[in-house]
């Protein structure tokens, strides 16, 4: 079964005659008839009634049923041709934790799209533990995580590290550096940045402490920091961006949590699109004071 045979059949159905179909397809009537015969032989049944004196095409019952199938076949054929053209189009699938997508990557993605006009970019928010499965199954090209795990098939590579800072309302009278012993955990907006951060937090505030708010969606943090008494500990990339949109003050921390380390994981050799992404990310990180890039 070929595309020429399916086109021949559908054109005959559309025009109602072999003569008109042959003219529309720019072929001779015998050539068109041979295509229909070849199609019928492959299918094992007759599609059209034939006989002397029959000028307009009349489909058999099986021919009528085959019309819908022929349309589906042609649609599938068009989709297979689309796949064949994928090599000429840049495709990039990126997975990352929410704080990176919200606070670090926007300008990186904008630049990537601006400088790659044919790029088709997919961005998905995933937790670190989900990212390994995505890479292993070939569902994403690169993933950015904060909690690495061992994988035999996947390389986990450090991307950058950044200090953790104290963020609170603008009107509070605070020293240049904050010590955890000064803080009231019942006013905290807590985000589980990493296992290392959780260990630090449990040490200073106790494993059963009750913060004011616990967030899984980092983009909501800025809305809760409007209150004068609330506070949070956040990576410098997050704190800096929040300070640009919310009236807050940012302070360094004595006995601070360990730096947040961001990793990227790959399941194969990086494509040109992945290399461009890492290059633009590295340049963006240089604009954030305190961040150490390993890219």
TrEMBL record:
<dbReference type="GO" id="GO:0003700">
    <property type="term" value="F:DNA-binding transcription factor activity"/>
</dbReference>
<dbReference type="InterPro" id="IPR000847">
    <property type="entry name" value="LysR_HTH_N"/>
</dbReference>
<protein>
    <submittedName>
        <fullName>HTH-type transcriptional regulator CatM</fullName>
    </submittedName>
</protein>
<dbReference type="Pfam" id="PF03466">
    <property type="entry name" value="LysR_substrate"/>
</dbReference>
<keyword id="KW-0805">Transcription regulation</keyword>
<keyword id="KW-0238">DNA-binding</keyword>
<dbReference type="InterPro" id="IPR005119">
    <property type="entry name" value="LysR_subst-bd"/>
</dbReference>
<feature type="domain" description="HTH lysR-type">
    <location>
        <begin position="1"/>
        <end position="57"/>
    </location>
</feature>
<dbReference type="GO" id="GO:0003677">
    <property type="term" value="F:DNA binding"/>
</dbReference>
<comment type="similarity">
    <text>Belongs to the LysR transcriptional regulatory family.</text>
</comment>
<dbReference type="InterPro" id="IPR036388">
    <property type="entry name" value="WH-like_DNA-bd_sf"/>
</dbReference>
<keyword id="KW-0804">Transcription</keyword>
<dbReference type="GO" id="GO:0032993">
    <property type="term" value="C:protein-DNA complex"/>
</dbReference>
<dbReference type="Pfam" id="PF00126">
    <property type="entry name" value="HTH_1"/>
</dbReference>
<dbReference type="InterPro" id="IPR036390">
    <property type="entry name" value="WH_DNA-bd_sf"/>
</dbReference>
């Amino acid at each position: 079964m070929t595309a020429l045979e399916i086109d021949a059949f559908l054109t005959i159905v559309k025009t109602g005659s072999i003569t008109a179909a042959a003219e529309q397809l720019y072929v001779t009537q015998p050539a068109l008839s041979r295509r229909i015969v070849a199609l019928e032989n492959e299918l094992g049944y007759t599609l059209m009634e034939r006989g002397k004196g029959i000028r307009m095409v009349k489909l058999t019952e099986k021919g009528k049923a085959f019309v819908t199938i022929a349309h589906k076949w042609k649609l599938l054929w068009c989709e297979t041709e689309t796949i064949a053209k994928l090599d000429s189009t840049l495709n990039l699938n990126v997975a990352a934790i929410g704080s990176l997508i919200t606070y670090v990557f926007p300008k990186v993605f904008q630049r990537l799209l601006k400088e790659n006009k044919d790029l088709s970019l997919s961005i998905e928010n995933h937790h670190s533990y989900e990212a390994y499965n995505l890479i292993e199954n070939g569902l994403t090209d690169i993933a950015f995580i904060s909690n690495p795990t061992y994988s035999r098939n996947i390389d986990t590579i450090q991307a950058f590290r950044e200090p953790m800072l104290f963020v609170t309302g603008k009107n509070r009278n605070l020293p240049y550096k904050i010590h955890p012993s000064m803080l009231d955990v019942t006013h905290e907006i807590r985000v589980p940045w990493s296992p290392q951060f959780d260990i630090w937090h449990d040490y200073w505030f106790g494993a059963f402490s009750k913060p004011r708010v616990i967030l899984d969606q980092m983009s909501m943090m800025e809305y809760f920091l409007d209150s004068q008494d609330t506070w949070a500990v956040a990576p410098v990339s997050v704190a800096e961006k929040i300070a640009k949109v919310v009236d807050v003050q940012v302070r360094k921390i004595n006995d601070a949590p360990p730096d947040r380390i961001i990793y990227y994981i790959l399941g194969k050799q990086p494509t040109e699109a992945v290399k461009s992404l890492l290059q633009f990310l590295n340049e963006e990180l240089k604009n954030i004071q305190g961040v150490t890039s390993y890219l």
